[in-house]
Each structure stands twice: as C-alpha cells, then as structure tokens.
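Predict structure. Chain length: 144.
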Amino acid sequence: MYLEDYVLNQVYDVPPVQMTEENIISFAEEFDPRPFHLHPEEAEKTRFGKLFASGFHTLSLCWSSWVNMGLDAQGMIAGIGIDELRWKKPAFVGDTLYPELRIAKIEPSRDGTKGAVTYEMTVYNQRDEEVLSFLAIGLVKARK
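Prediction complete.
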C-alpha cells in the first residue's frame, strides 16, 4: 500500500496469535528476563497467579502479525513512533490474541511524496477482553 491506498477508519482483522509457554519464556530470556515471565513458580507468587507474557512480547507478536500480512510492504519507509501504548490485561499461556488495526490518521507531506499514517491497534483475547492498545505512526511513500 502507498499513501493514496489508505482509507481513514478502514479496519483490518489481523491474523490471531497464540501464546505458548515456550514462546513466552523464550522471549523473556532474551528481552525481558523478569522471573515472573521465566518461571511458572515465580509467576504464581504474583497477583496474576500464573505465567504471563511480557507486554513487549505481546506488542511484538501482534505487530509482527500485521507486518506479515504484507499490505504495507511496498510503501513503508520507516516507523516514526508509538504513542499511547497501554497493556490492559496480561496475556497468559494458552491465550489466543486477536489484533485489530484501524487507520486512525493520514497526513500527506507538503510536497506530496510521502506522508504519516497512524495505525491504531487494539488486541483482544479469546474472552473478548482488551489486552493491549497503541498508536503506531509510519512514514509511507506516495505513488507520485
């Protein structure tokens, strides 16, 4: 997709992602090695009572699912930032996460060769509880 292909408020159902004990621990070992993400017995001592994913893991998995759809591959120049990131519920072993992406804002550049697109992602679990939300801003090429 190029800048002209984006439609304000267009919603995309992103492929769901599965949370497994193996991928939760593997991510935590490399990127967020807190005991409650690494060891089920340590997680039992928390208010959640069982192993749960790092919020960064949840974010990365869901964003990866969008990127792997390949819709924005041709026009994407670079990410600009993430705003309003909120982890609302933990993701547990066995959860299926359902990301939904909405085009929240489209801002063409003055010269018309590119623009900023704001993507609003909201992620729900299999119980339809909101797990995660954020705004991602990308710099996108125009066809011109």
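Summary: The radius of gyration is 17 Å.
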